[in-house]
Amino acid sequence: MQYRKRGLQKLAGILEIPQDIVLDLPRITMLGNQQLLIENHKGIIEYTPSLVRIKLSRGELIVNGNHLMLSNLQVEQILIEGTVREVTYDT
Amino acid sequence: MTLNIANYINGMVRIRIKGIMTERFVNLCMAQRILLWDIVKHDNDLYASMRLNDFFRIRPITRVSQVKIRVVAYRGLPFLIKRVKQRKMMLFGAVASLILLNIMTSYIWFVDIIGTKQLSDTMIREIAVQNGLRPGSEKNTVNAKQIEKKILLAIPEVAWVGVSFSGTRAEIEIVEKTMPREEDKAPTDIVAGKDGVIIEFIALAGKPMVKKGDTVKKGDLLITGIIPEQTVVDEAGQSIKNNVPPQLIKANGIVKARVWYETYGEAEMTVFHHERTGNREMAINIKIGSNQIPLKSAKLDPEAEFENEVIHKKIPVWRNSGLTVESEINIYHEVKTLWAAKTTEEARDEARTKALLAVQNLVPETAQILSRTSEVLDAAEPNLVRVKVSIESIEEIGRSVAILGQ
């Protein structure tokens, strides 16, 4: 499994294909500490104004902060607004 | 932005999601491609916005996720239409007011006439009314071109006329002809308006009574408009009575004469002026109708000099009552008299300025000034400087005077 993934990654590098598409990885974009955009997610596990847990293809993403708000919720992307203090990647 | 407009047109609702598995509800919504936004948590309740179309699709999801949904707010066109439908009279009123506005603006409310100077507005207004242009007439029925033509034909003094409409106001613009001034044909004499010596004499009409070089006094006859019976002498030396009777004409001519003016100006060597010391007293009176009530009286030093300043304050006419309420404030400024001495030159200049000012009022603007002299006279008083200014000028002295007895 690990070996196969590495092979795929190499192939993506040779063919210049974006790795997130090949490997089904989330693309996380942050605008300061105010906006956090997560693409290619698998749904939300938990939501409170101070904590958001998002399921990914492997593992989950834990966002800590204040006044967090899910301002846009779609199949492809989640936009979190508020004051982000901490983003943790849990595998 | 476009998404916002689309959402507004389709309508959107804000819902409260109550339950244990609110996250599950959100995930299921996502899986169903139901768009949610502005999700916030308040006291274990989730608030989210969604489209109105999607709202009717969430029933199965609520059953699965065991949450209770409640609409807390709605926004958008579908709700607005619903509200308007409930209040039909409002819509009716809006339409009615539009129709009324349309009807009202199709009539003329005011007729303005501008540009008239000699002509009377009422005459033009009358013609306009006869041709259907009056307050209350419909705009479409008024033929502006025809009214322009009618006014132009009816009043010969009008050079150009324009009828235009701006909103509910009709404007008749008039440009008047400038008529040549009618000359007075009444017979006149030319008499001297001032004393002087004639240096130029041209009689254009009438019989000359003086000649160049004559000294004339004010009121002397220069050119007469009375032409006596003409007699013609024939070859034989006999005078034949001509049948031209004595005529009266309007005399005309150019009579230029040398005219002298003399004026005097005086100035004192010492002057005094008052200067306020800054001390002042105030007296206040209130006048109600014909009664006067002193509120404050001034305590004046009998030995000092004062300048009095009076201020009247009136309450504006209140409901047309005849009662006048007025306050009168007397301010007494204490003054000190200061004496100042002037040099002879200053006094002389002042006197000359006074004299020149006086002479300027006498000499007409068209006069040609030949010389201007000033001399200081010996004044009887030692404190006084007296200056004489004399001016010699050439000017037209002829004045038209109507021949009496006609």
Automatic annotation (TrEMBL), chain A:
InterPro entries for the chain: Spore_YabP/YqfC, Spore_YqfC, YabP_sf
Entry-linked Gene3D superfamilies: 2.60.40.2000
Source organism of the structure: bioreactor metagenome
Pfam families named in the record: YabP (PF07873)
Name of the protein described by the UniProt record: Sporulation protein YqfC
Regions annotated as coiled coil: none
From TrEMBL, chain B:
Ranges annotated as spanning the membrane: 89-110
Keywords tagged on the record: Membrane, Transmembrane, Transmembrane helix
Name by which UniProt lists this protein: Sporulation protein YqfD
InterPro entries: YqfD
Keyword Membrane appears in the UniProt entry: yes
Originating organism: bioreactor metagenome
